[in-house]
Amino acid sequence: MMALMISGGALAADATAKKDNAPPPAPASVPFDFVIGARGLTDYNFRGISQSNRNPAVQAYGELQFMDNLFYAGVFGSSVDLATKPSMEIDLSFGIRPKFGDFTFDFGGIGYIYPNEKQLIDNGVIWTPKNTDMFELAGKGAYTWDDLTVGANVFWTWNWLGTGAQGTYTSLTAKYNTPFLKGGYISGEIGRYFLGTTNATLGSLRLPDYTYGNIGVGYTYQIATLDLRYHDTNLSKSQCFTLTSDPSGIYGGSGKSNWCGQAFIATLSVDITGSQTGIFAPSK
Question: Average pLDDT for residues 104-121, to the nearest whole number?
Fold first, then answer.
């Protein structure tokens, strides 16, 4: 994401200097920028688990950025197909992104909201919480060297998807912008999810920890990006069912889910910033 902030400190001019030797006026200050975007995916995969029952999804998002992207606040929406049947997913985020040379950081919070969901109860067995909304604290760091960016991330919640279990997700990421193809990139992530024990209503169940990874290639042309990516976890189908309460595993009696296995996902996205549109261009 890009942010534009054009400094506008005034330059003192000698009153006796000739007009043609006077310094040009500084551009007007632009204190903030915005990013808006939309994407279509063949499957909405979040940390290795399908959020759309292995079906396509559509998403839209926007972010306001202040003081050259030092502070930000964003909103994200996606279609989903989950056990509690919410009408959609809405994420609200905020934070700060300080920069020190080639190092960038991101510290903030994310709220995940699932409107109009219904608790899944079958034959007197409670399979899901009444409300799976949750809030995460997030910390990220990245270092860029020429065309390579490497990063480390940690996310923590005290109430994972309303289950009462703590959840900590850590990951390492890398992205290489291909010099032989302008706009092309190769990127990947390897992460580990550490999950705790659910509340008594859900059986005081110890949730399985798991490893997740993805790798893919992409190409950006102007405002459009096509990304082709492979995702996988080390979760068994039974462990996947424990984490998702996939209705097919309940009503079919298998106690298994395929939401956590191998997935090849294509994503087409379009992103626009205020500085690209010229809305915040300084006046002449």
Answer: 98
